[in-house]
Structure formats: C-alpha cells, structure tokens
Design brief:
Helix content: 25-40%
Number of helices: 13
Shape: elongated
Number of domains: 3
Distance between the termini: 71 Å
Radius of gyration: 27 Å
CATH superfamily of the largest domain: Zn-dependent exopeptidases
CATH architecture of the largest domain: 3-Layer(aba) Sandwich
Bound molecules: zinc ion
CATH topology of the largest domain: Aminopeptidase
C-alpha cells in the first residue's frame, strides 16, 4: 500500500483526486493512526502547498506577510493552520474568514480520502484572531414577539441564508461583490435560488415557517440599480428592519472597504436570533485552486456537537435526494461534518442549531454546471429541507426500502388489502408503483400507481380488486412494486404474489 506521504505527493502533482481515491482501498485514515514520522512529512507538504496557494491571492489589509505552518492534531482530528504573527489582518471579519476558509478548502482537497480531519482552525503567531481583535458578541437575542402564536404552539422557524450578495463599499462608494465569476456563475447570484427552493420545501413539505436573510424579489434596489435578489442580507435586512440596526449594522466600520461585508456576515445569525429561528441554514458554493475537487461539504461551529449532528443529518439527506436523480448518481457528498470558526455560525444563539452547507465547487466546471441546473438544485434543496425535518423530528437518516410485502389470497370481485412494510423516512406524498411480472391467461394486467398523501407509518395498506364477469374464474398474479417519495427517492422493487379465487 502507498504511504500517506507518497499518496499526498501524488495528489499534489497532477493526478485527479478521484482516480487516486478509487485506488485507495482503505477508508480515510484518522490523524491519530498516522505515525509521527509520516505526520511530519504530511505537515511539510501541506506547508508548501498552502504557502503556494496563499501567495496566489493578495495579502489582506494589515498583513505584512504570510508564513504557513500546519499542525495535524491527533487528539481531536483537528488541523491548525498558523499564518504567522505578520499575517494578523487589520480587522477580524469577512476577509480573514474568507482567507482561512480558502486555506482550509485547499487542505481538504489535499487530505481528502487520505487523512481524516474534522476541524480546521486558523491562528496567527499561535493565537486566535480574536486575541488581536476581540469578537463583539451577539447583542441580545431580542426575539421578535409581535408575531401571533398559533393555538398548537409557536411555529418552527428556519432561517435560510443565501451566501453573500452586493454590499456597499463606503470607501470606493461602489456596490461590490467579492466572489469571482467562474465557470459562468457567481456564488452570490446562485445561492438565492437554492434558498428559494429550500424555503419552498420547508413550507410545503415540512410545514415549517421560513425567514430568509436575502430576498428573491426581482424589483430594483434603486441605489445600486440591481434587482433586490442580488443584494446582501445586510442591505435587505436594513430595508426590512430599519429600526433594528443592531441586526444589520452591528459594527462601527463604515470607513472600512469590507465594513458592510463584515456586517453582512453578522447580520445573518443576528437576524436568526431576532426571529427566534430554531434552525439556521447558510448556503454557499465553494472555490479551490484545485479545479478537480468536487462535491458537497458541510460545516458547523466548533464545540457545538448538536450542530454537528444537525449538519450530519442534512448531508446524509442530500446524498439521498441528489443521488436519487439518475444524472447525479455519482455526486459526492462528504458525510462527515467539519468544524471551523465562522461568524455566520458563531453568533447564533447556542441553544439553536446552525449549519453551513457548501453545495458544490464553482471552481469545477461540472459542479458549476450542476449548481446552475434546476434538476440539481431541486434535488439538493430537497435534501437540505429533509435533513432539517429529520433533525426536528428526532429521526435518523436511513435508507428508504421495502422490507416486506406478504403474499395474499382473496376473492374475485371483493376488494381485499395487502401491506407494504418499509423503512426510511420518505417525504410524503409517496407513490406506490405496481408492474405485472406474470399475469395468468384470461386476465388483463397493467402497470399503475397510487398515491398515499398523508404521512403513514409502516406498513402502508393498499387494496387489490380482481374484477371478472366470468363465473368460476380464478388467477394467481405476480407484481413488482416500489415506492417513490415526494423528493424522487425510490425504493428497490419488491415482488409479491397474490391469488384471486373465484367467488362462491
Ligand atoms: Zn461563500
């Protein structure tokens, strides 16, 4: 077997990631299993690769130089990325988070399938960024109590946040975005479509309330002359909550070119706290200098284990709904939630759940095509919404399958029932498909489906009706049956035999 270091060397040369992963017939190794000597080699490699990556980007305001030193921490499967004392940026906010996330994504693309690391932390001369720039805590969960509560308890609110969007740069006096146009898409203007579709699923299929941090309205925001749906949460929430600047203008930074972007990041969790959202979902797309890396990743705020479970539920459900689509059967969803330190997550009321989903890589051409396609978006949105529902209902993510359909015997011209036992947590309505496998002579059999509208615990009861005008006619039938849920997730077919005896 290849050593981890040899594998990483190969990975960082030119071979495509997926091909190498296929050759590695062992599961990803956890850092604790990595011998010390190999760990040192891997760290040296990471230092070199991340140094190269960070030098491909401009320094942030305040940074003199960046010198990368990585440490794989065996105890907690964590990776520390130290940028050096001279890399302390002028402020802690959107720009430093973007740089840290960029380095983390590079590390993930290098370590993927070789070494399992669950969490990433950026430090500066060994210290957290908040050592230099103390974090302003979230002020008040000043929850909005004006909403009327229904008889059956308050509605469950989900805050759905589409990443980024136009914000105002008070220094250049321009409306700006910070994400690149890559493979024909810009993250800022793709995420609102995902947010719209997740919101629709949460409302229609899960009967939850949704509060969106950005809008999908197409009317024009006059100052920028852009449609409202392109504006950041900071700008949108200012228009919706003019009397609550503590949500959208929580920092005193109007003279910083990134000031409103920093406010924007904070506005999302502060808005979630304001509307008392039980769950928050932050939707992003990912970028990497390694254009071969693909697929879905999920993040939570470090030390929040309930959030890890919440993210895990969402990733597992996304794998189910995305791979249910024939075109995306091989779409990669990394089921392991990873932790980091994100303003979007950190400021969320810790008693509430928050997830950050990187749906795919806009830096990869095939992923970008999927991110722009309605079929992919529908499937991915269904998975995110389902993950939230499963977590809320205390259910696990398990494979949707038929466990049994017992054979039955009944009488001609008298309807009789049969049972379909299933496992999994399908989204209703569920369709029951039936297709004849064998049909006795003298009878006509055809393919058909019936719809079960309300959520039904296993087993589902269905009816058979053999109708015949021929006195004394009996028959034994074999059908294959399968279930398809509202998200397009299908069970494997299951065969059943039933007999209709001639009426006495
Ligand atoms: Zn993003």
């Amino acid at each position: 077997m290849k050593t981890v270091a040899a594998l990483l060397l190969a990975l960082t040369s030119s071979a495509p990631l997926s091909a190498l992963a296929d050759n590695l017939h062992t599961p990803a190794r956890r850092a604790p299993e990595l011998p010390t000597s190999e760990r040192a080699e891997v760290e040296t490699l990471l230092d070199r690769e991340l140094q190269q990556a960070v030098e491909s980007e401009p320094l942030l305001p305040g940074q003199k130089k960046v010198v990368i030193t990585t440490t794989l921490n065996p105890g907690n499967r964590e990776m520390l990325i130290d940028l050096g004392r001279d890399a302390v940026p002028a402020t802690a906010g959107a720009a430093s988070e973007r740089q840290c996330h960029f380095l983390m994504t590079e590390a993930i693309s290098i370590l993927k399938d070789a070494v399992r690391i669950d969490g990433y932390t950026c430090t500066y001369g060994g210290k957290d960024i908040f050592y230099y720039h103390p974090d302003l805590p979230a002020t008040t969960p000043a929850a909005d109590t004006t909403k009327e509560e229904r008889q059956d308890g308050p509605p469950v609110v989900v805050m759905v946040s589409a990443g980024h969007g136009y914000f105002y740069n008070g220094v250049s006096r321009q409306w700006e975005t910070r994400r690149p146009l890559m493979n024909g898409m810009r993250e800022d203007f793709v995420t609102p479509y995902f947010a719209r579709d997740v919101a629709a699923d949460l409302i229609n299929k899960s009967h939850m309330s949704v509060a969106k941090a950005r809008t999908n309205e197409a009317t024009i925001h006059a100052p920028s002359n852009q449609p409202w749906w392109r504006m950041s949460a900071r700008t949108w929430l200012e228009s919706q909550y003019p009397d609550n600047p503590e949500i959208w203008n929580s920092l005193n930074n109007d003279n910083d070119p990134d000031g409103h972007e920093d406010d924007d990041i904070r506005a999302r969790p502060l808005f979630a706290n304001h509307v008392n959202a039980s769950y928050s979902l932050h939707i992003h797309t990912n970028g990497s200098t390694n254009t071969s890396i693909r697929g879905t990743l999920g993040f939570y705020q470090r030390d929040r284990q309930d959030d890890a479970r919440f993210v895990a539920r969402m990733l597992c459900s996304m794998k189910e709904t995305i791979q249910a689509h024939p075109f995306y059967r091989n779409w990669s969803v990394d089921l392991q939630p990873r932790y980091g330190n994100y303003g979007e997550l950190r400021l969320t009321d810790p008693s509430k759940r928050a997830a950050l989903i990187e749906v795919g890589f806009h830096s990869n051409a095939q992923d970008a095509t999927a991110l722009k396609s309605e079929a992919f978006r529908t499937a991915a949105a269904a998975g995110m919404a389902k993950g939230i529902r499963l977590y809320h209902e205390g259910k696990n993510c398990e494979t949707f399958k038929i466990d049994s359909i017992p054979d039955v015997i009944g009488s001609v011209n008298t309807p009789f029932s049969y049972l379909i036992s299933y496992s999994g947590n399908p989204t209703y309505p569920v369709k029951v498909y039936s297709q004849p496998v064998s049909c006795p002579s003298g009878w006509s059999c055809s393919r058909f489906h019936r719809t079960v509208n309300s959520p039904t615990r296993s087993p589902i009861t269905q009816e058979i009706n053999c109708s015949s005008n021929n006195v004394g006619q009996s028959g034994t039938f074999r059908y294959k049956r399968w279930l398809v849920d509202a998200d397009g997730v299908s069970t494997a077919p299951f065969e059943q035999t039933y007999t209709c005896n001639a009426a006495m």
